[in-house]
Amino acid sequence: MTLEKSKEFPMNEDTEKEIYECFSLFDTNKCGYIDVREFYFALKSLGLNFKKEEVKTLFLEVKKSINDKLNFDEFFDIASKHIHKRYNDEEIDQIFSLFDPNDTGKITLNSLRTVCTEIGENIDEEELKNMIEFADKNNDKVIDKEEFKHVLLSAWTNDPLSDLDDSD
């Protein structure tokens, strides 16, 4: 089993390791392959709640028969293309609301400072401003929900270009 980075769906090392460990866990006989049933439960354990028919479709995109088996590289390719889906909008909304207690739809410098203080993080004013500036794509000096979602997902992917807009 090789752990190659996906160029199409970059992710951080912890997520790559999680996928590897998941495959190893469901490769119960340690043969280097998992069947469609093990594949279904492996995806579930990664937080990817596909329906049975969706799992069959994913499996058959790689294999000719439902009776075939996936090797690690095939599993990794599928998992890496879909693992970002475990971060659903509801979870992102819940996290966002922690930074936006007044439900304004925006994270301000003041609300960011308040959250940092509440969790015991002593971050200086300049660093807080840098955090806002980094996430603020439309230069309105606040972070809206879409900008926040972008930051969360780019942290997951560990993409060094995630903060750049194609129009830059």
Describe this structure in words.
This protein has 168 residues and is mainly α. It contains eight helices and four strands; from the N terminus they run H-E-H-H-E-H-H-E-H-H-E-H. It has helices spanning 13-26, 36-45, 52-62, 72-82, 89-99, 109-118, 125-135, 145-157, and strands at 33-34, 70-71, 106-107, 143-144. Helix 1 packs antiparallel against helix 2, helix 1 crosses helix 4 (72-82) and helix 5 (89-99) crosses helix 8.
What secondary-structure arrangement, pairings included, does this model have?
Elements: H1 13-26, E1 33-34, H2 36-45, H3 52-62, E2 70-71, H4 72-82, H5 89-99, E3 106-107, H6 109-118, H7 125-135, E4 143-144, H8 145-157
Antiparallel strand pairs: 1-2, 3-4
Helix pairs in contact: 1-2, 1-4, 5-8
Protein name: Centrin-4, putative
GO cellular component, one term: myosin II complex
Subcellular location: Cytoplasm, Cytoskeleton
